[in-house]
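re: the backbone from monday

yeah here it is again, tokenized this time
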């Protein structure tokens, strides 16, 4: 939930609080992984249930990288969880979703409009099936500066 609240945040003054929450969660996972399987890359020997559960979230959190400039800091507090996240994302079974797709589809979330809701001034959701996301331009990174129009997002002709 912390990742969704972070991307949906519309108050720049609250950004650091959301960042701290995300980093705390990653540190907790890092500690758990370090205790369970310090050598990694997975929780156990192979890609399993934990990875199947977390990988979709890791991929969705690409929206944090794009819209919030989120990066795990370097250092031992994050090294193990970074290795796990990277191994999960790189697993061949997870290649059906791309960073470009997540960034384009979740643009409305970055504007505080989740679950198909429309941001003010827009008439088409970024989750619309047509036109296909592959034909749309990348949305603007600066989420706090206002809303791109349906036309700017390639949602209407």
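seq for it, each position gets an aa:
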């Amino acid at each position: 939930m912390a990742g969704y609240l972070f991307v949906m945040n519309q108050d720049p003054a609250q950004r650091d609080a959301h960042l701290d929450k995300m980093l705390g969660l990653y540190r907790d996972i890092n500690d758990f992984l370090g205790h369970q399987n310090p050598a990694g890359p997975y929780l156990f020997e192979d890609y399993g249930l934990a990875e199947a559960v977390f990988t979709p979230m890791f991929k969705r959190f690409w929206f944090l990288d794009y819209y919030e400039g989120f990066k795990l800091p370097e250092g031992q507090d994050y090294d193990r969880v970074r290795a796990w996240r990277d191994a999960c994302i790189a697993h061949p079974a997870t290649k059906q979703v791309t960073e470009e797709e997540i960034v384009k589809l979740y643009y409305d979330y970055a504007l505080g409009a989740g679950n198909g809701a429309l941001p003010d001034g827009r008439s088409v959701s970024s989750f619309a099936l047509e036109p296909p996301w592959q034909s749309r331009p990348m949305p603007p990174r600066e989420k706090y500066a206002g809303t791109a129009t349906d036309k700017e997002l390639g949602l209407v002709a």
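The mean pLDDT is 96. Residues 99 and 134 are 11 Å apart (CA to CA).
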